[in-house]
Backbone:
């Protein structure tokens, strides 16, 4: 639920009911692509910590995919659709493993599918090694971006 909907008032709605509506848990959809079980476990722990620390209650809806599934033609399209619906896309690895080459191609499919939306990608490469980037592209690939819009991408440190 967006902030505008949470703060909107409705005729005849009591203050108590409005407060209860604004306290409903927020669904947080996380697409998690992982190298191995250890990496997936680290991501789930990190997300749960963030959700617990948030002011409002969150309900985590994880979508877990192994790296090798993203490279498989049998699963790739379904994974792209899941990622297109996610609030965040996380790639999880451990220091002993690396990101497969096919992950770059899969990511380009996701970015094309999410064109016109802000997309946050997080790479967890092991304990203490996390990178975040938010990308935004114009909805119409043939139109130039307006001057007030971000150029190609914004980095979040």
Residues:
């Amino acid at each position: 639920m967006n902030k505008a909907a949470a703060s909107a008032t409705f005729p005849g709605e009591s203050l108590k009911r409005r407060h209860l509506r604004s306290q409903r848990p927020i669904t947080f959809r996380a697409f998690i692509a992982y190298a191995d079980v250890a990496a997936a476990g680290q991501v789930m722990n990190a997300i749960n910590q963030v959700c617990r620390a948030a002011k409002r209650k969150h309900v985590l809806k994880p979508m877990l995919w192994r790296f090798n599934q993203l490279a498989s033609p049998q699963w790739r399209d379904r994974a792209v659709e899941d990622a297109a619906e996610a609030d965040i896309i996380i790639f999880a690895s451990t220091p002993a493993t690396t990101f497969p080459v096919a992950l770059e191609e899969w990511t380009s499919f996701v970015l094309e599918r999410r064109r016109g939306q802000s997309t946050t990608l997080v790479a967890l490469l092991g304990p203490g090694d996390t990178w975040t980037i938010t990308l935004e592209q114009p909805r119409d690939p043939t139109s130039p971006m307006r001057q007030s819009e971000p150029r190609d991408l914004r980095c979040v440190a």
Notes: The first strand starts at residue 26 and ends at 34. The two ends are 26 Å apart (CA to CA). Residues 37-53 form the longest helix (17 residues).
